Fold:
Amino acid sequence: MVWRDYQKEIADDHFFYVRSCIRQSFFPGSEQFFLHLMREVLGKDVYENPSHTTCTGIGYHSDVVPFSTIQTVVARHYALMKEAGYKNIAISCVTSFGIYTEILETWKHFPEELEKTREYLYKATGREFDVPENVVHTSDLVYKFRDQIASAAKFRLVNKLTGEPLRVVEHIGCHYAKIFPKYGIGGAEFPHVLSGMIESWGGEVVDYPERRHCCGFGFRQYLVQANRGYSLSNTVKKFTSMKPYKPDLVLTNCPGCTMFMDKWQYTIREMDGSTFGADGESIPVLTYEELAALVMGYNPWDIGLQIHMVQSEPLLRKMGIEFDPRDKYLTKDGRQMPIPKDLINS
Amino acid sequence: MENYLELLKQDIRFVEGLKACMNCGICTAICPAAEFYDYDPRKLVDTVQKGDNEEIEKLLRSETIWYCGECMSCKTRCPRGNTPALVVMALRTLSQKLGFFTDSEKGRQQFAIKRTVGENIFKYGYCVATYAVRPDMHLEQGPIWKYILENTYDVYERLGGQINELGAGPLRKIPDDAKEELKKIFEVTGGTELFETIETHSRKKAAEMGLQFDEEGIDNEYFIEAYTASNKKHTF
Structure:
Protein backbone atom coordinates (compact mmCIF):
# COMPACT_ATOMS: atom_id res chain seq x y z
CA MET A 1 0.00 0.00 0.00
CA VAL A 2 1.15 3.52 -0.71
CA TRP A 3 0.48 6.30 1.80
CA ARG A 4 -2.23 8.66 0.58
CA ASP A 5 0.16 11.62 0.77
CA TYR A 6 2.60 9.85 -1.53
CA GLN A 7 0.23 8.71 -4.24
CA LYS A 8 1.41 10.07 -7.54
CA GLU A 9 -0.49 10.96 -10.65
CA ILE A 10 0.94 9.08 -13.61
CA ALA A 11 -0.57 9.94 -16.98
CA ASP A 12 -1.91 7.05 -19.03
CA ASP A 13 -0.67 7.89 -22.50
CA HIS A 14 1.11 10.35 -24.83
CA PHE A 15 4.64 10.90 -23.52
CA PHE A 16 7.64 12.85 -24.70
CA TYR A 17 10.59 10.57 -23.93
CA VAL A 18 14.05 11.75 -22.87
CA ARG A 19 17.01 9.37 -22.65
CA SER A 20 19.76 8.99 -20.09
CA CYS A 21 23.46 9.46 -20.90
CA ILE A 22 24.46 6.58 -18.63
CA ARG A 23 21.58 4.22 -19.37
CA GLN A 24 21.92 4.45 -23.13
CA SER A 25 25.68 3.83 -22.79
CA PHE A 26 25.60 0.96 -20.30
CA PHE A 27 22.08 -0.45 -20.67
CA PRO A 28 20.88 0.43 -24.19
CA GLY A 29 18.66 -2.66 -24.26
CA SER A 30 16.71 -1.37 -21.27
CA GLU A 31 15.75 1.88 -22.94
CA GLN A 32 14.78 0.03 -26.10
CA PHE A 33 12.70 -2.51 -24.19
CA PHE A 34 10.89 0.30 -22.39
CA LEU A 35 9.86 1.77 -25.74
CA HIS A 36 8.86 -1.67 -27.06
CA LEU A 37 6.79 -2.35 -23.95
CA MET A 38 5.01 0.98 -24.08
CA ARG A 39 4.45 1.14 -27.83
CA GLU A 40 4.09 -2.43 -29.07
CA VAL A 41 2.80 -4.27 -25.98
CA LEU A 42 0.71 -1.60 -24.25
CA GLY A 43 -0.18 0.41 -27.36
CA LYS A 44 0.90 3.77 -25.93
CA ASP A 45 2.14 6.82 -27.76
CA VAL A 46 5.73 7.62 -26.76
CA TYR A 47 7.61 10.14 -28.87
CA GLU A 48 11.37 10.64 -28.99
CA ASN A 49 12.87 13.69 -30.67
CA PRO A 50 16.44 12.82 -31.78
CA SER A 51 17.42 16.44 -31.19
CA HIS A 52 17.10 16.24 -27.41
CA THR A 53 20.45 16.22 -25.63
CA THR A 54 21.93 15.58 -22.22
CA CYS A 55 20.16 17.52 -19.48
CA THR A 56 23.74 18.31 -18.24
CA GLY A 57 22.77 16.85 -14.84
CA ILE A 58 26.07 15.08 -14.22
CA GLY A 59 27.89 18.34 -14.94
CA TYR A 60 25.48 20.25 -12.69
CA HIS A 61 25.91 17.85 -9.77
CA SER A 62 29.68 17.92 -10.20
CA ASP A 63 29.45 21.72 -10.12
CA VAL A 64 30.81 22.66 -13.55
CA VAL A 65 27.38 23.62 -14.93
CA PRO A 66 25.52 26.60 -13.39
CA PHE A 67 21.90 26.34 -12.27
CA SER A 68 20.78 28.92 -14.85
CA THR A 69 22.37 26.84 -17.59
CA ILE A 70 20.73 23.55 -16.65
CA GLN A 71 17.36 25.26 -16.22
CA THR A 72 17.64 26.53 -19.79
CA VAL A 73 18.79 23.18 -21.21
CA VAL A 74 15.77 21.53 -19.58
CA ALA A 75 13.57 24.35 -20.90
CA ARG A 76 14.83 23.52 -24.40
CA HIS A 77 13.54 19.97 -23.93
CA TYR A 78 10.20 21.40 -22.85
CA ALA A 79 10.25 23.51 -26.02
CA LEU A 80 10.84 20.43 -28.19
CA MET A 81 7.98 18.78 -26.32
CA LYS A 82 5.65 21.74 -26.90
CA GLU A 83 6.57 21.87 -30.60
CA ALA A 84 5.65 18.17 -30.93
CA GLY A 85 2.34 18.68 -29.10
CA TYR A 86 3.08 16.74 -25.91
CA LYS A 87 2.25 17.69 -22.30
CA ASN A 88 3.59 14.64 -20.42
CA ILE A 89 7.29 13.87 -20.07
CA ALA A 90 8.78 10.42 -19.35
CA ILE A 91 12.37 10.62 -18.10
CA SER A 92 14.74 7.66 -18.35
CA CYS A 93 17.36 8.92 -15.89
CA VAL A 94 16.94 9.38 -12.14
CA THR A 95 19.50 12.21 -12.00
CA SER A 96 17.55 13.95 -14.78
CA PHE A 97 14.27 13.23 -12.99
CA GLY A 98 15.63 14.92 -9.85
CA ILE A 99 16.77 17.86 -11.98
CA TYR A 100 13.39 18.23 -13.69
CA THR A 101 11.55 18.15 -10.37
CA GLU A 102 14.02 20.56 -8.71
CA ILE A 103 13.53 22.99 -11.57
CA LEU A 104 9.74 22.73 -11.49
CA GLU A 105 9.73 23.40 -7.75
CA THR A 106 12.17 26.29 -8.21
CA TRP A 107 9.88 27.86 -10.78
CA LYS A 108 6.95 27.54 -8.36
CA HIS A 109 8.81 29.16 -5.45
CA PHE A 110 10.91 31.61 -7.46
CA PRO A 111 8.75 32.64 -10.46
CA GLU A 112 11.41 35.14 -11.48
CA GLU A 113 13.65 32.15 -12.31
CA LEU A 114 11.00 30.86 -14.72
CA GLU A 115 10.82 34.23 -16.45
CA LYS A 116 14.62 34.49 -16.61
CA THR A 117 14.78 30.98 -18.13
CA ARG A 118 12.18 31.93 -20.77
CA GLU A 119 14.33 34.93 -21.72
CA TYR A 120 17.55 32.89 -21.80
CA LEU A 121 16.05 30.16 -23.96
CA TYR A 122 14.51 32.60 -26.41
CA LYS A 123 17.74 34.56 -26.68
CA ALA A 124 19.83 31.41 -27.22
CA THR A 125 17.51 29.44 -29.52
CA GLY A 126 14.39 31.46 -30.39
CA ARG A 127 12.33 28.69 -28.76
CA GLU A 128 9.43 28.98 -26.30
CA PHE A 129 8.15 26.39 -23.87
CA ASP A 130 5.29 25.38 -21.60
CA VAL A 131 5.70 23.78 -18.18
CA PRO A 132 4.68 20.10 -18.51
CA GLU A 133 1.45 18.81 -17.02
CA ASN A 134 2.79 15.43 -15.90
CA VAL A 135 6.39 14.50 -15.05
CA VAL A 136 7.18 10.82 -14.57
CA HIS A 137 10.21 8.63 -14.35
CA THR A 138 10.06 5.63 -16.67
CA SER A 139 10.02 3.31 -13.65
CA ASP A 140 6.75 5.02 -12.64
CA LEU A 141 5.24 3.79 -15.90
CA VAL A 142 6.46 0.21 -15.53
CA TYR A 143 5.02 0.36 -11.98
CA LYS A 144 1.71 1.66 -13.30
CA PHE A 145 1.44 -1.21 -15.77
CA ARG A 146 3.02 -3.86 -13.50
CA ASP A 147 -0.14 -5.92 -13.21
CA GLN A 148 -0.61 -6.00 -16.97
CA ILE A 149 2.97 -7.25 -17.20
CA ALA A 150 2.17 -9.86 -14.53
CA SER A 151 -0.87 -11.02 -16.46
CA ALA A 152 1.33 -11.56 -19.53
CA ALA A 153 4.08 -13.24 -17.51
CA LYS A 154 5.69 -16.44 -18.69
CA PHE A 155 7.95 -16.62 -15.64
CA ARG A 156 7.56 -15.46 -12.07
CA LEU A 157 10.06 -14.37 -9.44
CA VAL A 158 9.89 -17.78 -7.84
CA ASN A 159 12.68 -20.29 -7.39
CA LYS A 160 11.61 -23.15 -9.61
CA LEU A 161 13.54 -25.70 -7.58
CA THR A 162 12.21 -24.76 -4.14
CA GLY A 163 8.92 -23.04 -4.97
CA GLU A 164 9.97 -20.15 -2.72
CA PRO A 165 9.75 -16.51 -3.83
CA LEU A 166 13.06 -15.03 -4.98
CA ARG A 167 14.58 -12.57 -2.50
CA VAL A 168 14.94 -9.23 -4.24
CA VAL A 169 16.80 -6.17 -2.98
CA GLU A 170 15.28 -3.02 -4.40
CA HIS A 171 17.52 0.02 -4.66
CA ILE A 172 15.97 3.37 -5.47
CA GLY A 173 18.20 6.08 -6.89
CA CYS A 174 18.60 8.89 -4.33
CA HIS A 175 17.33 11.59 -6.68
CA TYR A 176 14.08 9.74 -7.41
CA ALA A 177 12.39 10.81 -4.16
CA LYS A 178 14.89 12.04 -1.56
CA ILE A 179 14.81 15.56 -2.96
CA PHE A 180 11.05 15.84 -3.36
CA PRO A 181 9.28 12.84 -1.81
CA LYS A 182 5.95 13.91 -3.29
CA TYR A 183 7.23 13.16 -6.81
CA GLY A 184 7.99 9.52 -5.98
CA ILE A 185 5.52 6.68 -5.55
CA GLY A 186 5.54 6.07 -1.80
CA GLY A 187 7.85 8.98 -1.01
CA ALA A 188 11.45 8.69 0.17
CA GLU A 189 11.10 6.37 3.15
CA PHE A 190 8.76 3.73 1.73
CA PRO A 191 9.09 4.03 -2.04
CA HIS A 192 6.85 1.48 -3.69
CA VAL A 193 7.96 1.95 -7.27
CA LEU A 194 10.19 -1.14 -7.38
CA SER A 195 8.77 -3.15 -4.47
CA GLY A 196 5.38 -2.93 -6.20
CA MET A 197 6.84 -4.59 -9.29
CA ILE A 198 8.57 -7.28 -7.21
CA GLU A 199 5.38 -8.13 -5.32
CA SER A 200 3.29 -8.13 -8.48
CA TRP A 201 5.71 -10.47 -10.23
CA GLY A 202 5.89 -12.98 -7.36
CA GLY A 203 9.09 -12.07 -5.51
CA GLU A 204 9.83 -11.21 -1.90
CA VAL A 205 11.21 -7.77 -1.08
CA VAL A 206 14.30 -7.85 1.15
CA ASP A 207 14.35 -5.32 3.98
CA TYR A 208 17.83 -4.65 5.34
CA PRO A 209 19.49 -1.93 7.44
CA GLU A 210 21.16 0.10 4.68
CA ARG A 211 18.27 -0.21 2.24
CA ARG A 212 18.06 3.56 1.70
CA HIS A 213 21.81 4.24 1.68
CA CYS A 214 23.24 5.81 -1.48
CA CYS A 215 24.89 3.42 -3.98
CA GLY A 216 28.00 5.58 -3.63
CA PHE A 217 28.08 7.40 -7.00
CA GLY A 218 28.55 10.84 -5.44
CA PHE A 219 29.16 12.47 -8.86
CA ARG A 220 32.64 14.06 -8.42
CA GLN A 221 33.43 11.27 -5.95
CA TYR A 222 33.34 8.80 -8.82
CA LEU A 223 34.18 10.99 -11.81
CA VAL A 224 37.64 11.79 -10.42
CA GLN A 225 39.85 8.74 -9.98
CA ALA A 226 41.39 10.03 -6.72
CA ASN A 227 37.97 10.08 -5.05
CA ARG A 228 36.69 6.63 -5.92
CA GLY A 229 37.37 5.29 -2.43
CA TYR A 230 34.23 7.21 -1.37
CA SER A 231 32.17 5.52 -4.03
CA LEU A 232 33.54 2.05 -3.39
CA SER A 233 33.29 2.35 0.41
CA ASN A 234 29.61 3.24 0.28
CA THR A 235 28.91 0.30 -2.01
CA VAL A 236 30.74 -2.04 0.39
CA LYS A 237 28.59 -0.68 3.23
CA LYS A 238 25.41 -1.48 1.31
CA PHE A 239 26.40 -4.92 0.12
CA THR A 240 27.75 -5.93 3.53
CA SER A 241 24.41 -4.95 5.02
CA MET A 242 22.35 -6.93 2.51
CA LYS A 243 24.56 -10.04 2.44
CA PRO A 244 23.02 -11.89 5.43
CA TYR A 245 19.63 -11.79 3.65
CA LYS A 246 21.02 -13.83 0.73
CA PRO A 247 19.44 -11.80 -2.08
CA ASP A 248 18.89 -13.50 -5.44
CA LEU A 249 19.07 -10.22 -7.31
CA VAL A 250 19.26 -6.46 -6.94
CA LEU A 251 16.70 -4.37 -8.80
CA THR A 252 17.36 -0.67 -9.40
CA ASN A 253 15.66 2.26 -11.10
CA CYS A 254 18.69 4.52 -11.54
CA PRO A 255 21.30 4.26 -14.31
CA GLY A 256 24.30 5.02 -12.12
CA CYS A 257 23.17 2.72 -9.30
CA THR A 258 22.73 -0.21 -11.71
CA MET A 259 26.18 0.33 -13.16
CA PHE A 260 27.96 0.84 -9.84
CA MET A 261 26.32 -2.02 -7.99
CA ASP A 262 27.26 -4.28 -10.90
CA LYS A 263 30.82 -3.03 -11.47
CA TRP A 264 31.89 -2.48 -7.88
CA GLN A 265 31.08 -6.11 -7.06
CA TYR A 266 33.74 -7.01 -9.63
CA THR A 267 36.18 -4.48 -8.16
CA ILE A 268 35.66 -5.64 -4.57
CA ARG A 269 36.14 -9.26 -5.59
CA GLU A 270 39.36 -8.33 -7.37
CA MET A 271 40.57 -6.36 -4.34
CA ASP A 272 39.97 -8.81 -1.51
CA GLY A 273 37.95 -11.72 -2.87
CA SER A 274 34.69 -10.68 -1.16
CA THR A 275 31.36 -11.68 -2.69
CA PHE A 276 27.90 -10.88 -1.40
CA GLY A 277 25.49 -13.46 -2.81
CA ALA A 278 24.68 -16.92 -1.51
CA ASP A 279 27.27 -19.67 -2.00
CA GLY A 280 30.10 -17.27 -2.83
CA GLU A 281 28.43 -15.89 -5.93
CA SER A 282 27.99 -12.26 -6.85
CA ILE A 283 24.48 -10.80 -7.10
CA PRO A 284 23.04 -9.95 -10.54
CA VAL A 285 21.95 -6.29 -10.69
CA LEU A 286 19.08 -5.64 -13.11
CA THR A 287 17.15 -2.67 -14.38
CA TYR A 288 13.36 -2.81 -14.03
CA GLU A 289 13.00 -3.16 -17.80
CA GLU A 290 15.41 -6.10 -17.86
CA LEU A 291 13.40 -7.80 -15.13
CA ALA A 292 10.07 -7.05 -16.84
CA ALA A 293 11.45 -8.50 -20.06
CA LEU A 294 12.60 -11.69 -18.30
CA VAL A 295 9.21 -12.08 -16.61
CA MET A 296 7.52 -11.68 -20.00
CA GLY A 297 9.75 -14.31 -21.59
CA TYR A 298 12.00 -12.22 -23.83
CA ASN A 299 15.41 -13.52 -24.86
CA PRO A 300 17.88 -12.32 -22.18
CA TRP A 301 20.52 -11.70 -24.83
CA ASP A 302 18.23 -9.34 -26.77
CA ILE A 303 17.89 -7.05 -23.75
CA GLY A 304 21.59 -6.94 -22.86
CA LEU A 305 22.17 -9.07 -19.77
CA GLN A 306 25.39 -10.28 -21.42
CA ILE A 307 27.01 -6.85 -21.10
CA HIS A 308 26.79 -6.71 -17.32
CA MET A 309 29.92 -7.57 -15.35
CA VAL A 310 27.93 -9.89 -13.06
CA GLN A 311 26.21 -12.37 -15.34
CA SER A 312 22.64 -13.53 -14.74
CA GLU A 313 22.72 -17.26 -15.50
CA PRO A 314 22.15 -18.29 -11.85
CA LEU A 315 19.04 -16.10 -11.77
CA LEU A 316 17.78 -17.42 -15.10
CA ARG A 317 18.11 -21.00 -13.84
CA LYS A 318 16.24 -20.18 -10.64
CA MET A 319 13.40 -18.62 -12.64
CA GLY A 320 13.32 -21.61 -14.97
CA ILE A 321 14.17 -19.55 -18.04
CA GLU A 322 15.68 -21.58 -20.83
CA PHE A 323 18.45 -19.78 -22.67
CA ASP A 324 20.80 -20.60 -25.50
CA PRO A 325 24.45 -19.96 -24.52
CA ARG A 326 25.43 -20.05 -28.21
CA ASP A 327 23.16 -17.08 -28.91
CA LYS A 328 24.70 -14.95 -26.19
CA TYR A 329 27.42 -13.28 -28.23
CA LEU A 330 25.96 -13.34 -31.71
CA THR A 331 25.46 -10.15 -33.70
CA LYS A 332 22.01 -9.01 -34.75
CA ASP A 333 22.44 -10.85 -38.07
CA GLY A 334 23.79 -14.00 -36.41
CA ARG A 335 27.56 -13.67 -36.79
CA GLN A 336 29.69 -15.00 -33.93
CA MET A 337 31.35 -12.26 -31.87
CA PRO A 338 34.37 -12.82 -29.63
CA ILE A 339 33.47 -14.23 -26.21
CA PRO A 340 34.43 -11.90 -23.36
CA LYS A 341 36.59 -13.45 -20.66
CA ASP A 342 36.61 -13.22 -16.87
CA LEU A 343 32.99 -12.18 -16.36
CA ILE A 344 31.40 -13.09 -13.04
CA ASN A 345 28.84 -15.91 -12.54
CA SER A 346 29.10 -17.03 -16.18
CA MET B 1 37.45 41.65 1.55
CA GLU B 2 34.08 40.88 -0.03
CA ASN B 3 31.07 39.95 2.10
CA TYR B 4 30.84 36.27 1.26
CA LEU B 5 27.53 35.70 3.02
CA GLU B 6 25.93 38.39 0.87
CA LEU B 7 27.42 36.79 -2.26
CA LEU B 8 26.05 33.40 -1.20
CA LYS B 9 22.60 34.91 -0.70
CA GLN B 10 22.55 35.81 -4.39
CA ASP B 11 22.37 32.07 -5.15
CA ILE B 12 18.75 30.91 -4.81
CA ARG B 13 19.97 27.44 -3.87
CA PHE B 14 21.54 28.98 -0.78
CA VAL B 15 18.34 30.87 0.04
CA GLU B 16 16.34 27.65 -0.34
CA GLY B 17 18.95 25.47 1.40
CA LEU B 18 19.52 27.39 4.62
CA LYS B 19 16.83 28.93 6.76
CA ALA B 20 17.78 28.43 10.42
CA CYS B 21 19.85 25.43 11.45
CA MET B 22 19.38 24.16 15.02
CA ASN B 23 22.51 22.02 14.92
CA CYS B 24 20.72 18.73 15.54
CA GLY B 25 23.19 16.84 13.31
CA ILE B 26 20.71 14.59 11.49
CA CYS B 27 22.36 15.63 8.22
CA THR B 28 25.69 14.32 9.47
CA ALA B 29 24.12 11.10 10.71
CA ILE B 30 22.66 10.33 7.29
CA CYS B 31 25.55 11.65 5.17
CA PRO B 32 27.52 9.10 3.09
CA ALA B 33 30.42 11.56 2.85
CA ALA B 34 30.59 12.02 6.63
CA GLU B 35 30.91 8.27 6.95
CA PHE B 36 34.22 8.10 5.09
CA TYR B 37 35.68 11.62 4.85
CA ASP B 38 36.72 13.97 7.66
CA TYR B 39 33.50 15.84 6.99
CA ASP B 40 30.59 17.14 9.04
CA PRO B 41 27.82 18.96 7.17
CA ARG B 42 26.34 20.22 10.46
CA LYS B 43 29.57 22.09 11.22
CA LEU B 44 29.77 23.42 7.67
CA VAL B 45 26.23 24.81 7.79
CA ASP B 46 26.81 26.28 11.24
CA THR B 47 29.97 28.05 10.08
CA VAL B 48 28.08 29.66 7.21
CA GLN B 49 25.10 30.46 9.43
CA LYS B 50 27.28 32.33 11.94
CA GLY B 51 28.34 34.65 9.12
CA ASP B 52 31.99 35.16 10.16
CA ASN B 53 33.51 36.36 6.92
CA GLU B 54 37.01 35.01 7.60
CA GLU B 55 35.66 31.59 8.53
CA ILE B 56 33.56 31.49 5.35
CA GLU B 57 36.62 32.38 3.28
CA LYS B 58 38.50 29.51 4.94
CA LEU B 59 35.66 27.21 3.89
CA LEU B 60 35.70 28.52 0.32
CA ARG B 61 39.43 27.75 0.12
CA SER B 62 39.14 24.40 1.96
CA GLU B 63 38.98 20.71 1.06
CA THR B 64 35.81 20.49 3.16
CA ILE B 65 33.32 21.84 0.62
CA TRP B 66 34.37 19.24 -1.96
CA TYR B 67 33.57 16.11 0.10
CA CYS B 68 29.78 16.06 -0.42
CA GLY B 69 28.47 13.59 -3.03
CA GLU B 70 25.24 15.54 -3.68
CA CYS B 71 23.09 12.47 -3.01
CA MET B 72 20.71 14.94 -1.32
CA SER B 73 19.86 12.52 1.51
CA CYS B 74 20.13 15.49 3.88
CA LYS B 75 17.22 17.18 2.09
CA THR B 76 14.85 14.41 3.14
CA ARG B 77 15.90 14.35 6.78
CA CYS B 78 16.36 17.92 7.98
CA PRO B 79 13.53 18.72 10.42
CA ARG B 80 13.91 22.42 9.61
CA GLY B 81 13.65 21.93 5.83
CA ASN B 82 17.26 22.92 5.19
CA THR B 83 19.42 21.26 2.55
CA PRO B 84 23.11 21.27 3.48
CA ALA B 85 23.94 19.90 0.00
CA LEU B 86 22.41 23.01 -1.59
CA VAL B 87 24.56 25.16 0.72
CA VAL B 88 27.58 23.16 -0.45
CA MET B 89 26.61 23.67 -4.10
CA ALA B 90 26.40 27.44 -3.56
CA LEU B 91 29.78 27.41 -1.78
CA ARG B 92 31.37 25.45 -4.63
CA THR B 93 30.00 27.82 -7.25
CA LEU B 94 31.30 30.84 -5.32
CA SER B 95 34.68 29.19 -4.68
CA GLN B 96 35.10 28.73 -8.41
CA LYS B 97 33.94 32.26 -9.30
CA LEU B 98 36.47 33.73 -6.86
CA GLY B 99 39.28 31.39 -7.93
CA PHE B 100 39.64 29.95 -4.40
CA PHE B 101 39.03 26.38 -5.57
CA THR B 102 42.62 25.86 -6.70
CA ASP B 103 43.84 26.30 -3.09
CA SER B 104 42.68 22.77 -2.25
CA GLU B 105 43.55 19.40 -3.75
CA LYS B 106 39.88 18.42 -4.03
CA GLY B 107 38.96 21.83 -5.44
CA ARG B 108 41.58 21.54 -8.19
CA GLN B 109 39.71 18.46 -9.42
CA GLN B 110 37.12 20.78 -10.98
CA PHE B 111 39.58 21.19 -13.85
CA ALA B 112 39.55 17.41 -14.48
CA ILE B 113 35.74 17.35 -14.42
CA LYS B 114 35.51 20.33 -16.78
CA ARG B 115 37.95 18.73 -19.26
CA THR B 116 36.01 15.44 -19.26
CA VAL B 117 32.28 15.63 -18.47
CA GLY B 118 32.10 19.36 -19.20
CA GLU B 119 33.64 19.12 -22.64
CA ASN B 120 31.71 15.94 -23.49
CA ILE B 121 28.59 18.12 -23.46
CA PHE B 122 29.85 20.20 -26.39
CA LYS B 123 31.63 17.36 -28.21
CA TYR B 124 28.90 14.75 -28.09
CA GLY B 125 25.79 16.39 -26.62
CA TYR B 126 26.08 13.95 -23.69
CA CYS B 127 27.76 14.19 -20.28
CA VAL B 128 28.78 10.55 -20.61
CA ALA B 129 29.04 8.41 -23.73
CA THR B 130 30.48 4.95 -24.28
CA TYR B 131 33.33 6.13 -26.48
CA ALA B 132 34.33 8.78 -23.89
CA VAL B 133 34.82 6.30 -21.01
CA ARG B 134 38.42 5.13 -21.43
CA PRO B 135 39.16 1.73 -19.85
CA ASP B 136 42.56 2.91 -18.60
CA MET B 137 40.81 5.67 -16.62
CA HIS B 138 38.07 3.30 -15.42
CA LEU B 139 39.65 0.02 -14.37
CA GLU B 140 36.60 -0.68 -12.17
CA GLN B 141 34.52 -1.20 -15.31
CA GLY B 142 36.24 -4.55 -15.72
CA PRO B 143 36.84 -6.72 -18.78
CA ILE B 144 33.29 -6.30 -20.10
CA TRP B 145 33.92 -2.61 -20.73
CA LYS B 146 37.05 -3.27 -22.77
CA TYR B 147 35.03 -5.86 -24.69
CA ILE B 148 32.21 -3.41 -25.39
CA LEU B 149 34.64 -0.81 -26.69
CA GLU B 150 36.35 -3.37 -28.92
CA ASN B 151 33.01 -4.52 -30.34
CA THR B 152 30.95 -1.38 -29.97
CA TYR B 153 28.97 -1.42 -33.18
CA ASP B 154 27.96 -5.10 -33.00
CA VAL B 155 27.10 -4.94 -29.29
CA TYR B 156 24.90 -1.87 -29.66
CA GLU B 157 23.31 -2.93 -32.92
CA ARG B 158 21.93 -6.08 -31.33
CA LEU B 159 20.50 -4.02 -28.46
CA GLY B 160 18.82 -1.45 -30.68
CA GLY B 161 21.57 1.15 -30.53
CA GLN B 162 22.00 3.96 -33.01
CA ILE B 163 25.60 4.58 -32.13
CA ASN B 164 27.06 7.65 -33.83
CA GLU B 165 24.27 7.79 -36.41
CA LEU B 166 21.58 10.40 -36.77
CA GLY B 167 18.03 9.44 -35.82
CA ALA B 168 16.28 8.25 -32.69
CA GLY B 169 17.83 5.58 -30.48
CA PRO B 170 20.44 4.94 -27.79
CA LEU B 171 23.73 6.80 -28.30
CA ARG B 172 22.48 8.40 -31.51
CA LYS B 173 24.64 11.16 -32.94
CA ILE B 174 23.29 14.46 -31.69
CA PRO B 175 22.67 16.74 -34.70
CA ASP B 176 25.10 19.65 -35.09
CA ASP B 177 22.33 22.25 -34.83
CA ALA B 178 21.29 20.81 -31.45
CA LYS B 179 24.88 20.96 -30.19
CA GLU B 180 25.07 24.53 -31.45
CA GLU B 181 21.97 25.39 -29.42
CA LEU B 182 23.58 23.85 -26.35
CA LYS B 183 26.64 26.06 -26.86
CA LYS B 184 24.50 29.16 -27.22
CA ILE B 185 22.62 28.27 -24.02
CA PHE B 186 25.95 27.98 -22.20
CA GLU B 187 27.05 31.36 -23.57
CA VAL B 188 23.84 33.15 -22.61
CA THR B 189 23.47 31.62 -19.13
CA GLY B 190 27.01 31.82 -17.75
CA GLY B 191 28.00 28.22 -18.45
CA THR B 192 30.78 29.19 -20.83
CA GLU B 193 32.01 31.82 -18.38
CA LEU B 194 32.28 29.21 -15.62
CA PHE B 195 34.25 26.90 -17.93
CA GLU B 196 36.62 29.77 -18.75
CA THR B 197 36.98 30.70 -15.08
CA ILE B 198 37.98 27.11 -14.24
CA GLU B 199 40.53 27.15 -17.08
CA THR B 200 42.01 30.53 -16.13
CA HIS B 201 42.60 29.71 -12.48
CA SER B 202 43.81 26.20 -13.26
CA ARG B 203 46.35 27.53 -15.77
CA LYS B 204 47.64 29.93 -13.11
CA LYS B 205 47.82 27.18 -10.48
CA ALA B 206 49.66 24.84 -12.85
CA ALA B 207 52.32 27.53 -13.32
CA GLU B 208 52.61 27.98 -9.55
CA MET B 209 53.02 24.22 -9.10
CA GLY B 210 55.48 23.95 -12.00
CA LEU B 211 53.28 21.51 -13.87
CA GLN B 212 52.81 21.28 -17.64
CA PHE B 213 49.44 22.67 -18.75
CA ASP B 214 47.98 22.27 -22.24
CA GLU B 215 45.14 24.39 -23.55
CA GLU B 216 43.26 21.26 -24.65
CA GLY B 217 42.96 17.61 -23.75
CA ILE B 218 43.84 15.46 -20.78
CA ASP B 219 47.36 14.32 -21.55
CA ASN B 220 49.11 16.98 -19.50
CA GLU B 221 50.70 16.99 -16.07
CA TYR B 222 48.18 19.31 -14.44
CA PHE B 223 45.21 17.18 -15.56
CA ILE B 224 46.89 14.03 -14.26
CA GLU B 225 47.63 15.77 -10.95
CA ALA B 226 44.03 16.98 -10.63
CA TYR B 227 42.60 13.58 -11.61
CA THR B 228 44.80 11.33 -9.49
CA ALA B 229 46.48 13.21 -6.62
CA SER B 230 45.60 12.26 -3.06
CA ASN B 231 47.51 13.54 -0.04
CA LYS B 232 45.82 10.85 2.08
CA LYS B 233 44.62 13.47 4.58
CA HIS B 234 40.95 13.44 3.68
CA THR B 235 39.70 10.67 5.97
CA PHE B 236 39.63 10.33 9.73
